[in-house]
Design brief:
alpha/beta, eight-stranded mixed β-sheet, four-stranded antiparallel β-sheet, 26 helices, 12 strands
Length: 785
């Protein structure tokens, strides 16, 4: 529907408007630019909110649920778009204040949601948090659908602004997390919504400008009150009914421990809390409410810490002298202290979480500045990436409960998963001295067994069959009635463990009350079939109750020990499929009168097109971020670079599509889909060798390659959907909200399918599924001609 130019548009365009005109076309009114700005701001708020929700869910609930932030985002956008269909009144934009009312609701929703999430009375159910968290996404989806339905002929320009805003939201979200934490991040987004309302009011002279100013003042007051009085944060760190693995809440709820949070650091990677208890000799440091580590009170005299040599964690240091030690996961410094007690003079400590380093240094007088001692070299970054790029050799590589429970912001993959893959174990063995050892302290015997089997797999690939590989491995466990508390130690030697080493291990195990699960020549019952000639595949098939298969970089879910999909993922898969089907049924019912007309087949094709575009985009986005994580070297940096590059490139592709005449859109969209499918299939087979090559190169090369590859794929990914919206603009603008809703619902399904496929078969096969979706989309686009 053509727009009526406003008087203020008669002035000569400035530099920004001139650039916009060159992309959007000479007939674009100024309202397109104001509306694009409003869309960009709401999209930025939505993406920043999604990142904040990842951290909130990871803190309050089990890490399995953190990936729901992505699903909630696309679900809310889809529901909001579906709501726009009955609410929209065609041709009344200039006098209809509904968009501004929606943004006013968003201004209020962000502070309210931030406070409510921080004040949840219990963590026993995620449902209340999901219902609360969904509201801002619904409002953003509603506003976006109203905007696109009003000016669908400029969908390429609007969709480009939407993607560019999302790219800015990545940077905004990560920055606000570091400044004020996840809850205050949500509260502060009310200010961004107020700016969006201001831009929307400028797009139409009938909309009051004073309303956004009032919203800006209200958002400022809400953020100031939150920062000053702490209303948007956990009350004393307490949460009733928290999951069992959220140890911090269990400790705080135990009156005997007299525990209290004394220091908190927020970081895009995770939240870190230092908890003081009745024991003055140590403090507890928790990452996202779980994954606790110890900060030891240390006055610099190692003799005062000699009693710590009688612990399970010290066992790997008793096998043989270790002058050069690599600690992966330095935490709050306890493992560094153990290495000092063992006489190590050269300790390299790698820590991926800057927040825990900041907390440890904050209490340097308490812990004796353990991370800054002259014997210690602290490296900030991913442990796996450091090992791959290092040429050093070590007597001992030590991983003690390397389990952050900090999921990456776009999925369920834990940041530490890449420390325990076959490829990682191969790199560790390459970095050991000829008589060096790899030691892993695990939470339980199942994790330890998986680590041992992974080592056997790597040795087998190097020509050492499993029956001989068992001579390289020892496995000991602390007996406990609770299987989840059977702390275990796996030791892998680059060479077979000698008799003197084994006798020393047996003596220490007896002294500490440990039960041997495997000591070559001394105790071999659990792995007896392998000693008798069984293959690893046969051994693993013997007990289907647990999934102990060695993990790989393509399927790096080391801590997923149960076969099949975790319950939260199965739940999300069923719910997203049901939602997609329900919205499709609603869309068909809403257009039932067209089935007898010539437009019926075209509508069904458009809905299928929107569905495939949503699924395909998410099936490629998530694997792409994970595939490049190792090369980039840090999960947060990987998210910032890959997701930002993908959204910026998609925005450029969308703007490019706006230049094409409408009659050529089906052919252009089909060509873009074929290019996406070809690139995705090429990435599926080329990324693994490229990753191996780039891991040995300087980090800058990895960053450049990741960004360039993402841009190459991202530009065509930004083309198909805005082409569809422009095709719907010809006497069918009322369908745009339905197309948005279908796209959003199937994006939820796509993100869940990507996680499920990665867990079952690997991220590379998720990319193949994405390529297949775009191939089908190319056929539908050609049919639309």
């Amino acid at each position: 529907m053509p727009s009526t130019p406003l008087k203020r548009e008669s002035s000569p365009p400035g530099a920004a408007e001139a650039l916009a005109l060159s992309v959007a076309g000479p007939a674009a009114p100024a309202r397109v630019y104001y509306l694009s700005l409003a869309l960009a701001l709401t999209s930025a708020a939505g993406l920043a909110y999604e990142i904040g929700l990842t951290r909130v869910f990871s803190l309050l609930f089990q890490y399995h649920y953190a990936f729901l932030a992505v699903s909630l985002a696309v679900l809310g956008l889809g529901l909001g778009a579906a709501t726009a269909a009955p609410l929209r009144r065609p041709g009344r934009w200039e006098r209809d204040r509904l968009p501004l009312v929606v943004l006013a609701g968003l201004i209020l929703a962000f502070p309210l949601v931030g406070i409510l999430l921080a004040r949840l009375p219990t963590g026993s159910s995620i449902l209340p948090a999901v219902v609360i968290a969904l509201l801002p996404f619904v409002l953003i989806g509603l506003f976006s659908a109203l905007a696109f339905a009003q000016l669908p002929q400029y969908s390429g320009w609007l969709y480009g602004a939407d993607l560019l805003g999302a790219a800015a939201g990545v940077v905004l979200g990560l920055g606000l997390l570091a400044l004020g934490g996840a809850f205050n991040l949500v509260v502060s987004l009310g200010l961004v919504a107020a700016l969006a309302a201001g831009a929307a009011s400028l797009s139409d002279r009938h909309l009051p400008v004073w309303a956004p100013l009032a919203g800006l003042a209200l958002g400022t007051l809400a953020l100031a009150g939150s920062l000053a009085f702490g209303v948007a944060d956990l009350a004393s760190g307490s949460l009733a009914g928290a999951a069992r693995d959220k140890t911090m809440f269990q400790v705080l709820a135990d009156p005997a421990r007299q525990a209290r949070v004394v220091y908190t650091v927020w970081h895009p990677f995770a939240r870190v809390d230092v908890v003081q208890t009745a024991d003055p000799s140590e403090m507890l440091v928790f990452t996202d409410g779980g994954a606790g580590s110890y900060m030891i009170r240390f006055d610099g005299d190692l003799a005062h810490q000699a009693h710590r040599q009688q612990t399970v964690e010290f066992l790997p240091f008793t096998v043989a002298p270790a002058e050069r030690v690599l600690v992966l996961g330095a935490g709050a410094g306890k493992d560094v202290l153990l290495a000092l007690l063992a006489g190590a003079g050269d300790i390299t400590a790698v820590e991926v979480n800057p927040a825990i380093v900041k907390a440890t240094r904050h209490y340097s007088q308490y812990n004796g500045a353990i991370l800054d001692r002259p014997e210690v070299t602290l490296v900030m970054g991913d442990g796996r990436a450091f090992v791959e790029r290092s040429d050093e050799r070590y007597d001992l590589i030590y991983l003690n409960l390397a389990y952050t429970q900090a999921p990456e912001p776009v999925s369920q993959s834990l940041a530490e998963n890449y420390l325990f893959t076959r490829e990682a174990f191969a790199a560790y063995l390459d970095r050991l001295e000829p008589d060096g050892r790899l030691a892993i302290v695990s939470h339980n015997a199942l994790e330890a067994s998986r680590a041992a089997l992974t080592a056997l797999q790597v040795l087998s690939e190097r020509g050492v069959p499993p029956d001989e590989g068992l001579d390289h491995i020892s496995l000991l466990m602390r007996p406990h009635s609770d299987p989840t508390l059977r702390e275990s130690v796996t030791i892998v030697g680059r060479q077979p463990l000698g008799g003197e080493e084994l006798q020393r291990l047996a003596a220490w195990a007896n002294r500490l009350g440990l039960q041997p699960l495997h000591l070559p020549g001394l105790f071999e019952m659990p792995f007896a079939p392998l000693r008798q000639g069984a293959t690893l595949e046969e051994f693993l098939a013997g007990d289907p109750s647990y999934d102990l298969r060695p993990t790989a970089d393509d399927r790096p879910f080391f801590f997923k020990l149960d076969p099949g999909l975790p319950f939260p993922v199965r739940q999300a898969l069923v719910a997203s499929a049901a939602l997609a089907l329900a919205l499709s049924a609603v869309a068909m019912y809403a257009r039932r009168t067209e089935w007898a007309a010539s437009a019926a087949g075209r509508l069904s094709a458009m809905l299928l097109y929107a569905a495939l575009a949503g699924m395909g985009f998410m099936l490629l986005e998530l694997p792409l971020i994970h595939q490049w994580q190792l090369v980039v070297g840090h999960p947060v940096l990987s998210l910032a670079i890959i997701l930002t590059a993908l959204l910026l490139a998609g925005g450029a592709g969308s703007w490019l599509s706006q230049r094409w005449p409408r009659r050529s859109l089906p052919r252009a969209a089909a060509g873009a889909c074929l290019a996406i499918a070809a690139l995705a299939l090429a990435f599926r087979w080329l990324l693994p060798p490229a990753t191996a090559l780039l891991l040995s190169a300087a980090p800058a090369w990895g960053l450049a390659a990741a960004g360039l590859a993402t841009i190459i794929l991202g530009v065509p990914m930004g083309i198909p959907f805005p082409c569809l919206l422009r095709l719907a603009s010809d006497r069918q603008a009322d369908r745009v909200p339905l197309l948005w809703a279908t796209n959003g619902a199937c994006s939820v399904l796509g993100s869940t399918l990507a996680i499920a496929a990665a867990m079952l078969w690997g991220y590379s096969w998720a990319m193949v599924a994405g390529a297949a979706a775009y191939l089908l989309l190319a056929g539908v686009a050609r049919w639309l001609r």
